[in-house]
Amino acid sequence: MHRTLTSTPATHWNSYQLAGILTSCFEGYLAPFIIQGEAFTERFSAEDVSLNASQVWLQKGMPVALALIARRGKTSRLAAFAIRPALRGQGVGKILIQQLIDAARMRGDKQMLLEVVTGNNGGVALYQRMGFTIQQTLVGFHAPASPASHSGGELIEADPLYLTRKMMSDSCLQLPWLSAPETLFKLPGYAYVMNNVAWAMVIPGTPAKLRMLYVEPEARGRGEAKALLLRLREKFPGLSTAVAIPEEYTPFFLRCGFSEDPIRQYQMSQLLSS
Predict the structure, then answer these.
(1) What is d(CA 122, CA 130) in angstroms, rounded to the nearest whole number?
(2) How far apart are alpha carbons 3 and 125 in whole angstroms?
(3) Are residues 151 and 96 in the same domain?
(4) Which of 59, 96, 106, 228 could serve as 198's disulfide partner, Cβ 3.0–4.6 Å?
């Protein structure tokens, strides 16, 4: 059946059409995914999705699969990949992923990344067969709607670009794509600083989303991160995070009164040879 599929760059569709294609291709997945055109542009432009590198596959003129490819330097990331239910379980995924890997090599990319929900056993097995290995587990958290007690610090609004420049200058930071400073400053959020050393990035909404918590190196180990997080909980009851936080930080969030999200993701990667 895969011989009846034809591929075309995602540039042939606008953001509303791509949002509709992506939503329909995710039908019946373990973690349902629905997105609208405005949110599509906002989210995936921040992730540096390249529509030239992204692909839509057609069968009899109808979109049946979509891959969104983000690029930074010589690294590609599979930001989204989904196939319509009628084509699943027939080996199509393996063929399409190989096409994406081959295209990345042709571009001269040196590495390819992706995230996959941990309970998606079929997806994890597919990516492992295609040469990807698990690098780490990413988790998310949410706070109760009841506000935290006042931590005593004052939140001061700051320029998100200033925060992300600070993070970029920290050579020790090794962050997942969704939490990287290259993503954060393009999101429609607010940056806050407390005590001039502890920083946060929050996306407004119901609930608000915490996208970054950063403490300057010389101030670490003094409780600044916990004080800032408690203050954010007070300002934004029900505050939650994206499922993009390395698992090693779980004890910290639990100590601050957060509960872990049931959804987890594996971050996977593959080095690309010429």
Answers:
(1) 12
(2) 23
(3) no
(4) 228
